[in-house]
Write a structure and sequence with these properties.
With about 70 residues, this protein is mainly alpha-helical. The relative contact order is 0.12.
Length: about 70
C-alpha cells in the first residue's frame, strides 16, 4: 500500500495536516516554543510538537535522541 500526504493550509472540514513551513507558521511555532519552555513535565516532539514536517525515519531518530537525553539526566 502506498499513501501520500501533502502539506496544506487547513480549512474548516479538512483533515488536519502538518503545517506549511512558511514565515507565518514559523512565527507561530516560535510563540508555541516559548510557551513550551515553561512546561517542565511535558515533552513536545514530532510533527505537531515541533510544528514541522518530518519523514518517519527522521521523526523516529529525533524521538530516540530525545529519549536518550532524558534518560541520561
Amino acid at each position: 500500500m502506498i499513501s501520500r500526504e501533502y502539506s496544506s493550509e487547513w480549512k474548516l472540514g479538512d483533515e488536519p495536516y502538518y503545517p506549511v513551513n512558511d514565515e507565518k507558521n514559523n512565527d507561530l511555532y516560535e510563540k508555541y516554543r516559548k510557551l513550551a519552555e515553561v512546561e517542565d513535565k511535558v515533552i513536545f516532539g514530532g510533527r505537531l510538537g515541533e510544528y514541522k514536517y518530518y519523514d518517519m525515519d527522521a521523526v523516529i531518530a529525533v524521538a530516540l535522541e530525545k529519549a536518550e537525553s532524558i534518560i541520561s539526566i
